[in-house]
Amino acid sequence: MSGSTPGGATAGPLLAVEDLRVSFPGKGWRAPRVEVLKGVSLDIRPGETLGLVGESGSGKTTIGRAILGLVPVGSGAITFAGERIDRAAARRRRELSRDIQVIFQDPYTSLNPSLTVGDTLSEPLLAQGYAAREARERVGRLLDRVELPADAAHRLPREFSGGQRQRVAIARALAIGPRLIVCDEPVSALDLTTQKTVLDLLVEIQERTGVSYLFVSHDLSVVRFMSHRVAVIHRGEIVETGEAAEVTAEPRHPYTRGLLLAAPVADVAAQRARRQAFEREYGAAT
Amino acid sequence: MSESTPAALPSAPGPVRRAGAARLLLAHPLGLVSAIVLAAVVAGVLLAPVLSPQDPDVSNLRDAFGGPAAGHPLGFDSAGRDILTRLLHGGRNTLGGAVIALAVALALGVPSGLLAGYRGGRFDSAAGWVVNLVMALPAMVVLLASRAILGPTVWVLMVVLGFLVAPVFFRLVRGIVANVRNELYVDAAKVSGLRDRRIVARHVLIVVRAPIIIQVALVSGIAVGLQAGLEFLGIGSGDTPTWGAMLNEAFKNIQRAPLLMLWPGLALGLTNGALVLLAAALRDVLEDRGAAPAVRRRRAPAPEAPRGTDGTPAGAGGRARLLSVRDLAVSYALPGGGEREVVHGVDLDVRAGEIVGLVGESGSGKTQTAFSILGILPEGGRVSRGSITVEGQEIVGMPERRHRALRGDVVAYVPQEPMSNLDPAFTVGSQLVEPMRCKLGISRAEATRRALDLLSLVEIADPRRTFGSYPHEISGGMAQRVLIAGAMSCDPRLLIADEPTTALDVMVQAEVLGLLRRLQRERGLGVLLVTHNLGVVADLCDRVAVMKQGRIVETGTAEQVLHAPGDPYTQRLLGAVLDDVPARGPWRPSNAEVS
Questions:
Q1: Cα separation of A71 and A62, whole Å?
Q2: Which residue among A152, B1, B51, B408 is the one 20 to 30 A from B64 at the CA level?
């Protein structure tokens, strides 16, 4: 947009996060602040998926929320398309919603239970100044794109399954044609078979529209399926970044290796080998 | 998480706002009666000039204490004024006063509560202080003082009362809004570029609406009562007729004409009672709509004992001694009457020293099956058919007392959410010790010794420290170990683990799985492992049963099921596993239109 980089083979990053630090007030009277992100740097190129893997409490969700402007940034810089957005004013923030969108983890609480799917989907469109009729047409196309029936617009979220709700959330994120979508564990609440179809849909959308994803997940195999590059976060620090195939098959950092060995595979012999390797390396069960 | 308990059950109709709260209220017997009474009172009061055109202050001393007469059905008061007229006109002042108090309270409490709850921060703390201060003021004293300063009019007093009641609304609204603010859909609205004002109007107000309506009914009752009380004490506007003032006058003549107390008392009692009952009915209608109708737990008929070889539909020959389930069906009562079957005829066996996986997606009935074995089906659910034997004892239809004895002794349970299964008010130690003392009848010292042994059995590094910790002081993985320790405390022979590692991180999961394997090996435990994770199955299970929509579609050894699945559904499940999917290739500058 603003910078309009001359489109070359080496397009600059769409989003760059540099030395990002975020802390939250500690619990209790005059408790010290708890630092959740301790200088995180990462970048995402146009049309790229960066997978962000970590365990609970590692700060992976906080990175996404900082990019979205939902948590205050302590220090460091977040640059989107050449523009610093870490301290964007409320007005600019609202404009940015055209470019940066989100899909949350829990499809049950991320949709307002008392609004119809159509109302939920037209909300961002109306906020960006679309006329009501135009918005309605666009909602119809969005539902079609995420493979939901057209009459879904008139129904309430509770009439849909988890996977269908997540499709609604995807449609909402796509509504204004963003350039970056923060996907915060979008499939971890879904069943195995639903998970696969939702991931397929996300990949297909990316290939069609060239949107970038920051794909946050705790599941290494999901991240491998989705991402071009993978960053591993541990206790608020990125411990390893690299091509998805490398990081998820031959990780260099011991923490990533642990994550890989600890994840059980659905193959009896392979899992036995994996378990033995895990126990050898981490001396778990004796 | 929603996939554990009754998520997939015949969920009672959730908040059906569309079905019309008003219609539901009128279908509620209490709601209907109180609404009719209130409507009658309000209509009578509003139509006072039409119903009794004479002035309420017209007095004729000759009629004083006179009984009912033509045109004066309730007779006359001590000053010879028509009682019905005064009741109707007095009601205008009494109810009008309550409306003023309410309006003031709402106007002050709701917006400030919205702001404080949504924005938090400094305004919230400041408003909190003010509200606490107002709540600390004794209402009666303030009202008396304000009458002395501002003069004896009902209306001013009611405005002051409104001030005093406003904190009730502030607190109510602030509390709810502060919760809603953290909902993901509010975050999503922010990311959608909505202004705060619009978010509040669209997403927040809707949530506080019902509680405010309920509170309004309650507070108006209080306002009416308080106002009447003030007037009764003679602290009001002396000359305007109100129900309280009528009571006051009647009280002065209670010896001479006790009946005079009746009419204003009745009016007050009816109005207040109707308001309180209406509030209760509103609460039922607006808030508790998720509650299923109370269903008496019916017990399934005990199956004709050993249904071994003759007519068993599943054949399958002999039943396992430790746990054997045959033709199990689980049904849930529907809110409108009738039942819905969610598990349709499940056969399952677990032998001693064997880990059997029960695999399925959410809503497949796997947790329902596990709960039936434990006898802890949620409200409304029952085993409607089939037989479950544990160590040869039939437990379908077994009296609850004997079943309870079986749980813990023979069958133990490890739940999915470790944290919510520990009581935050007690230390880990006491939660281990108490059940053992109760179950095994041993002394506290002996139970403590055993609890410490158990904690080291489950590989907790510092048992003594964990023993004295509260649940919030330990991690999720540790909590799950504690629960496993608790499950092992009475030396069970069958362990039922419902997604025991789903809430844990993978590293911790690997450790807990290792622990379960060791316990099973060392103690010859039979384990029924409910899970959705095929990796966990590969890691731990000897045999697997795959469930889909309340039926078992495939059973076999872990190797068979995972490597040569026979059923199309199992094949589909395995097809969705991402373990062997190749990584996505490296990124190339796209030729897509963006940027």
A1: 7
A2: B51
* Alpha helices per DSSP H over B489-593: 506-523, 534-540, 558-563, 568-575
Q: Is the pLDDT of residue B166 over 70?
A: yes
Cβ B589–A11 below 8 Å, yes or no? yes
Query: Residue A286: pLDDT band by 50, 70, 90 thresholds?
Result: very low
Chain A partners within 8 Å of B459 (Cβ): 285
Q: Which distant-in-sequence residues (6+ apart) come within 8 Å of B80 by Cβ? A: B59, B60, B61, B62, B63, B64, B66
Query: Who wins on pLDDT, B1 or A184?
Result: A184
CA separation for the pair B262, B267 (Å, rounded): 9
Nearest to B514 among A113, A172, A284 (CB): A284
Angle at the Cα of B128 from the Cα atoms of B125 and B131, rounded to 5 degrees: 155
Contacts of B533 in chain A (CB under 8 A): 264
* E strands, chain A, in order: 15-24, 34-44, 49-53, 75-80, 83-84, 100-103, 180-184, 212-217, 229-234, 237-243
pLDDT value of position B287: 67
Round to whole Å and give the CA distance between B426 and B403: 26
Confidence category of residue B526, pLDDT binned at 50, 70, 90: very high
Q: CA of A109, closest CA in chain B: separation in Å?
A: 6
Nearest to B184 among A95, A106, A199 (CB): A106
Contact B506 A263 (CB under 8 A): yes
Which chain A residue lies closest to B192 (C-alpha atoms)? A124
Fold (topology level) of A15-24+34-115+176-250: Rossmann fold (3.40.50)
Chain A positions in Cβ-Cβ contact with residue B514 (cut-off 8 Å): 275, 279, 284-285
Question: Considering the domain boundaries, does residue B351 fall inside one?
Answer: yes
Confidence of residue B238 (pLDDT cuts 50, 70, 90): low
Q: How many domains does chain B have?
A: 3
**Which H or E run includes B113?**
helix B83-119
Task: State residue B4's pLDDT score.
Answer: 37
Q: Which two tokens stand for residue B83?
A: 């009682």
Question: Could you tell me the CA-to-CA distances from B575 to A197, B569, B570 in Å, in that order?
Answer: 11, 10, 8
Tell me if B594 sits within 8 A of A4, measured CB to CB. Answer: no
What pLDDT, on the 0 to 100 scale, is given for residue B317? Answer: 55
Residues in A closer than 8 angstroms to B587, CB to CB, are: 45, 47-49, 228-229
List the one residue out of B532, B266, B432, B126 whose CA is nearest residue A188: B532
Among A111, A174, A214, A271, the strongest candidate for a mutation testing the B interface, having the largest count of B CBs within 10 A, is A271
A157 neighbourhood in chain B, CB within 8 Å? none
pLDDT > 60? residue B288: no
pTM of the model: 0.79
For B494, the enclosing helix (H) or strand (E) is: strand B494-498
Instruction: Calculate how close chain B gets to A192, using CA atoms only, in Å.
Output: 6
Question: E strands within B391-458?
Answer: 393-394, 411-414
Q: Can you give the residue ranges of every domain in chain A?
A: 15-24+34-115+176-250, 251-281
Q: Are residues B509 and B479 in the same domain?
A: no
Q: What is the pLDDT of residue B319?
A: 82
| Domain-embedded: residue B9 | no
Q: Are residues B390 and B326 in the same domain?
A: yes
Evaluate whether residue B118 is within a structural domain.
Answer: yes
What is the ipTM for the molecules in this complex? Answer: 0.85
Q: Which residues of A touch B594 (CB under 8 A)?
A: 46-47, 179, 209-211
pLDDT of the residue at A51:
95
Closest chain B residue to the Cα of A205, Cα to Cα = B592
Q: How far apart are the first and last CA of chain A?
A: 58
What chain A residue is nearest to B591 in terms of C-alpha separation?
Answer: A210
B90 and B214 fall within a common domain = yes
Closest approach of B516 to chain A, Cα-based (Å): 10
Nearest CA in chain A to B476: A56
Task: Write out the residue range of the structural domain in which residue B443 sits.
Answer: 425-491
